[in-house]
Amino acid sequence: MPVVPPEKLVKLQQQGEGIRNICILAHVDHGKTSLTDALIATNGIISPKLAGKIRYLDSRPDEQLRGITMESSAISLYFSLLRRNAPEAQPEQKEYLINLIDSPGHIDFSSEVSTASRLCDGAVVLVDAVEGVCSQTVTVLRQTWLEKLRPLLVINKMDRLITELKLSPSEAYTHLSKLLEQVNAVMGSFALGERMEDDLRWRERIDEKVTAAAAAKGQDASDGADGVRNGRKTSIAEDDEGLVTSSTPAEYEEKEDEDIYFEPERNNVIFSSAIDGWAFTPRQFAGLYEKKLGIKRHVLEKVLWGDFYLDPKTKRILGPKHLKGRHLKPMFVQLVLEQVWAVYEATLGGPNKKGDHVLLEKITKGLNLSIPAHVMRSKDPKALLSAVFSAWLPLSTALLVSVIEQLPNPPAAQEARMPALLEASPGAERIDAKVKDAMTHSKPAVGEPVVAYVSKMVSVPESELPMNKRRGGMLSADEARELGRKKRAEIARAQAQANGEVDVASVSDALSSAAIGDEDEIAGGTEAEAEQDEDPEHLIGFARLFSGTLTVGDEVYVLPPKYTPARPHALPQPRKVTITALYLLMGRSLESLNSVPAGNVVGIAGLEGAILKSGTICSQLEGAPNLSSTTAISTNAPIVRVALEPAFPGDLDKMIRGLRLLEQADPAVVYEQLESGEHVICTAGELHLERCLKDLRERFAKCDIQAGEAIVPYREGIVRAEEMNAPRDPALGRGRVEGVTTSKQVTIKLRVRPLPAPVTEFLVKHTGAVKRLYSERKAQDKERATPHDGNGTTGDAPEDVGEQDFEAEDSTAEAGQNLSMAEFRQRLVEAFAEDKADNQVWKDIVEKIAAFGPRRVGPNVLIDLTEDMLCGKFLREEHEAAADKAEHANKQSATFADKVAYAFQLATYQGPLCSEPVQGLAVFLEDICIHSSDEEAAQNMGRLTGEIIRTTRDSIRQGFLDWSPRIFLAMYSCEIQASAEVLGRVYGVISRRGGRIVSESLLEPSTNFTILALLPVAESFGFSDEIRQRTSGFAAPQLVFEGFEMLDEDPYWVPTTEEELEDLGEKADRENVAKRYVDKVRLRKGLMLDRKVVESAEKQKTLKR
Fold first, then answer.
1. Is 965 left (phi over 0), alpha (psi -120 to 50) or beta?
2. Given CA atoms 453, 458, 463, 469 in this order, what sign does their dihedral have?
3. In what order do the strands lie in the sheet containing 746-754?
4. Where do the Tr-type G domain residues begin and end (predicted)?
5. Closest listed residue to residue 109, CA positions, set 1015, 1043, 1038, 1042
């Protein structure tokens, strides 16, 4: 096929109507990259014979080695189509530019899926015809739903139904119908969830308006003034009976849900086999049978799928009611599947699996296909199969025609997507109307504001940039002739210098001294070699332009993640950068561009150091939208943490520089330096960690790096167990502690007890809501404090500095952010009410919550039971906050209450078992007694601050250990597809690693099982490799972080009763698993271990000397 020159693609970028931005999404190994190969082959970039084998977009060596995609990569393709504007008109050629992004399917790289989907307008979702809907299939469908992408469903690997499962066409039709139902059930569940939310919002609006109308009516009755009445009636539209008739409809309006489902008759489902290079939609077969059956094409499109039958005598289409007992095959089986099955039978069938040449000739004549004679004589049946299908049902035609017909162009897509996207961005009401209009209508004019979203930074070696390609690239014929002329002249000059003595030695010397290259290159040869050795990495922004035209040399603002148009100049200040280069992304290579109009996917150079992972760039600062804050990156949060160090200490700077580059180039990597000085990276999983270490060693740091053992997070908690040790102080009761400071000046009375499980679960799920409420409260306090202080600073500045380490962390996926204060309070009250056993203890407790912890947002609560509510209320309205501040302004104990709250954050951040964060803890502050005068306390404030923090922290830990402590393990949800033969081996590996099976289901009609299990993260390293080894590669697990699960075993339990001593002995022969985990963490952190170094001293070897 002819190679499409880049100039043609650049020209097509100017035509917004002819652009399609699509991403290919699927579960791992469902055939995304093979499908992409078939599309790339249409542009002559690779040979059609190698499509599906070369995996062109898997450009990394480790991607080729493992056979999976690890990074999303983009390529621009040209496609031309003959279209008629009217049925009788002559067909006209129309040209299209398709910006295609191939994404990974492995769960460790799900962040790459998020970055790809935000840049596109449509999605091609692949599903394996045998495996069906898998875990990542649901994830990518959810991603398309959230991003409002128009999806196309491709049922891939249809050949497996014929060659592996040996299904008949009728059985295959039944199987495909079930598969389509599964996919539509997933889409339906998303629509139902959204409908329920909309219904709830509608009910709330109706209630609000009815309440407002009733209040207005009551007010009018008391005032008795017509003027007021008229004013009310205009503000709240109501009829004579007082019912609201404003913009909120009286009945809930059901949305049309037909568009969300996949239906072959609507041509949004494609049946394909990427490896064999064929695909079709019902529309293609409707065109084939239109003349033969004498039925109009648009009618055939509607009836080729579903319970429709063809009467063989009358050639009429029958519904299921008109069969009259006859056993006819559905039209899809008779007219479509049987024809495809016949081709496989003719090429791969027969007794010797060599095919049936007579049947093949009949098929090629019937379909009017011209297969070259050398292919017909070929002994490779697969080559023959591919040749027949590429002539009859080429994959690229079916897919690209469907993409152009079904998926929207950038102007149409942005008009549908942008309003909701801008509404969800921070400070939406302050976005400039001109910017909003340009983005909504994808205006590409030069004067329009430029807005682009950079979804990730891509690292490219300097040698692969377009300006450096000539060095290692192929020479053209003219360049080769010119170079030859130069070298001949150089040799002649060398001979002339040898005083005319021409001998073999002098010529060979001259040849050896002649360098291949320009004179400038020869002069700087040593520098070029040094550069080649270094080959530094450059970061390029992977971006989508939403409005305006971006040109090289333009100055644009890079908006930070927390930017809001309401406060455009707030810190950190947006940076102004100059665009140094623009690139057309062509998979492994880049092509230079001068300018890019709106609606295109582009590579932007010049953003290095300005954007960490993702960001928005805009030509103006005032009223610019912040698109990066609304992104839904990564379903698999970074959980695996590893400490790194260079093999040679002198390479430390190299390693740190490499880590910063890696953090920018990978959307799911987090790099941090711990207080201990360790350099730690957090990655999404074991495979992701391997890829990051490889990149660090070979590309970013270019030095040998040693990785320590994975640092797995744990949580600590307490429970009320049946057999617990007696309370430490029986007089006070379990969990109650009276802490006295070293100077005996302050006594702190508090009580510790476990939170009810529903409350802990609620707080873990709604961390985002707590964080947002805390930020709002802090902002309100700052606003109130600013007018009182002439310098604009608050009096609590020193304490703020001390506490900032424990403020909320930025996390990528935070649930429940949209809860208001009232909703959050109500839901929390309901969660406490679920605990029936200690109903009196938790009654009205929500009003007394002073803080959440650790980091202000965690699943632990500090409850203030002091008489004056010294710590203040966390869940308070604004007017209550002002009253609290005025009330406690002059109280010395209120100052100490802040220190207690800070100590609570410390105690919950590092628990007593192994200094891991605590969850499910309630700390009741009962009293703070000061045994000195206010003046004395004020003088010793510095010393007392430290004493109170230390005493409170130790008291909370002491109260914690009064209950039965537990450790919570980080757990992976593990999904494995395995055949019945290897099922036992899979179970053996899971049970040996401390996992447990949750469910097991048979995937009909195959003999494969889908196993769902829970596995501790600490035991997961090497799990995938072991599963593959034990099952000979027939099973591969997908691990997703599920959360923390309690290990129901006390790490400090020892046998005490007679029965326990009799069963287990004094040493408790059964291993305490919880103690093993605790000791492992304490050993890593350098904490004290309570273990015997010498078990039996009398048995030691030295005793006999």
1. beta
2. negative
3. 736-740, 746-754, 921-930, 860-864, 849-853
4. 17-411
5. 1038
Q: Look at residue 98 in the predicted model and tell me its pLDDT.
A: 92
* Residue in this structure with the two tokens 């070259």, named with its chain if needed: 372
Of the candidates 810, 940, 926, 954, which has an alpha carbon nearest to the alpha carbon of residue 869? Answer: 926
Q: By the 8 A CB rule, do 907 and 737 touch?
A: no
> For residues 604 and 637, is the Cβ–Cβ distance under 8 A?
no
Query: Does an H or E element contain 162, and which?
Result: helix 159-163
Longest dimension (CA), the chain: 124
496 to 125, 303, 482, 484: CA distances (angstroms) = 70, 86, 21, 18
Chain centroid offset of residue 879 CA = 40
Within 8 A by CB and 6+ apart from 547, the residues are 435, 438, 439, 442, 443, 444, 448, 449, 450, 451, 598
Tokens 């080695």 locate to 65
Joined tokens for residue 65 = 């080695």
Q: 640-651 as b/e, with b when 16 or more CB fall inside 10 Å?
A: bbbbbbbeeeeb
- Nearest residue to 397 via CA among 516, 307, 241, 270: 270
Instruction: Write the DSSP string, 975-989.
Output: EEEEEGGGHHHHHHH
Q: Cis bond leading into 87, ω under 30°?
A: no
Structure token digits, residue 1033: 């590669």
For the chain, give the number of residues: 1105
Q: CA quadruple 177, 182, 187, 192: dihedral positive or negative? A: positive
Please state the pTM of the whole predicted model. 0.77
Instruction: For residue 699, give the DSSP letter.
Output: I
Q: What is the CA radius of gyration of the chain?
A: 35
Residue 496, judged by CB atoms within 10 A of its CB (0-12, 13-18, 19+), counts as exposed
Instruction: Look up tokens 């090289």; give the residue.
Output: 552
What six digits make up the tokens of 744? 């005996």
State whether residue 104 is helix, strand or coil. Answer: coil
Instruction: In whole angstroms, give the CA distance from residue 984 to residue 993.
Output: 15
Other Cβ atoms less than 10 A from the Cβ of 425: the count is 19
Q: What is the dihedral of CA 795, 798, 801, 802, to 10 degrees?
A: -130
Q: How confident is the model at residue 629 (pLDDT cuts 50, 70, 90)?
A: low
Query: Domains of the chain (ranges plus CATH)?
Result: 1-204+261-277+395-419 (3.40.50.300), 293-393 (3.90.1430.10), 428-465+535-618 (2.40.30.10), 644-711 (3.30.70.870), 732-782+818-880+890-962 (3.30.230.10), 967-1085 (3.30.70.240)
What's the Cα-to-Cα distance from 441 to each of 204, 416, 547, rounded to whole Å?
A: 33, 9, 8
Please tell me the distance from the alpha carbon of residue 656 to that of residue 652, in angstroms, as a whole number. Answer: 6
Q: Would you state the pLDDT for residue 180? A: 93
As a whole number of angstroms, the distance between CA 662 and CA 670 comes to 9
Q: What is the 3-state secondary structure (H, E, C) of 506-520?
A: HHHHHHHHCCCCCHH
Q: Which residues does 914 contact at the CB level (< 8 Å), separation at least 6?
A: 714, 716, 967, 1078, 1081, 1082, 1085, 1087
Judge whether residue 525 has pLDDT over 60. Answer: no
Q: 1045 in helix, strand or coil?
A: strand
pLDDT at 510 exceeding the cut of 50:
no
Average predicted confidence (pLDDT) for the chain:
80
Residue with tokens 């609006």: 205
Whole-number pLDDT of residue 545: 92
Is residue 379 within 8 Å of 352, Cβ to Cβ? Answer: no
pLDDT per residue as tens digits for the range 111-156? 778 778 888 999 999 999 988 888 888 888 988 888 888 999 999 9
**What gap in Å lies between CA 526 and CA 957, rounded to an integer?**
65
